[in-house]
Design a protein that fits this description.
single chain, about 325 residues, alpha/beta, FAD/NAD(P)-binding domain, 2 domains, 7-stranded mixed β-sheet, 5-stranded parallel β-sheet, 6 helices, elongated
Length: about 325
Amino acid sequence: MTSPKHTRMLILGSGPAGLSAAIYGARAGLKPVVVQGMQPGGQLTITTDVENYPGFRDVIQGPWLMQEMQAQAEHVGAEMIWDQIVDVDLSQRPFRLTGDGGSQYTADTVVICTGAQAKWLGTEGEQELSGKGVSACATCDGFFYRGKKVVVIGGGNTAVEEALYLTNHSDDVTLIHRRDSLRSEKILQDRLLSHPKIKVLWNKQVERFVGGGDPEGLVGVDLVDTVTGDKSHEPTDGAFVAIGHKPSTELFDGKMTLDGGYLVVEKGTSKTEIPGVFAAGDVTDKVYRQAVTAAGMGCMAALDVEKFLADSDYEASKAAY
């Protein structure tokens, strides 16, 4: 049987948080190993134009940015492994993890950067028009709809916040909600319902995202009334699905503290309740969910790991005398 692969710093996930942690960890001489997961590069690999990542005056491509971050991490000494972790034992150090093909890993520290995925409707045309008018992030893509008509789908805090944000770019924002009342906080409801740039379509559900033009892009959404069953069509240039995010934490359910599915960390740090286990990026961030904040949290995690290992080495050296 092949011996487990051991590392002082094992990073789960290869989005902005994971790769930033890898860069800082490698520069600290920790020789981190990055298990890339099911979606190497994270959500930015399915994002086309990126305009809000610091350091670039021109529009850059999400996949290109992640390729550059990975190349930088490898250049300074991080190792990339194409695998998906399917089981973890965090009950004792070194931690033991199992890959999808049965590969075994042991680690003195683990940094969880498995991210989160936007929840989608699963409606016809949604996947085909993703990046072509259909988005799940107004703060990422709202700028591209300056002066255009947009719709937001949902009724919770996420949807209301996205609709309010989009009024910075559009004078014609429509919120589409399948019920007759919102689930968001009262103060957000008051802001939305009194905003002159926003209208609400109540009791409406998106039946289909409609594409058109050459090159093809979103031209509207087909709706069905959830009360009467009547059908209608709403023309739009952009549609933002805002029904929440689902952090990728199934692997840790029952093994770590979760808050609404998100990993819990000590305030102002990346430390979880398990010494030696850290978390960064969207897997623990239910508020900001931006590439730049994820990258910053990855840096924090690497610095926390470096200090943890230094303290552990010191205690071990004391015990040896």
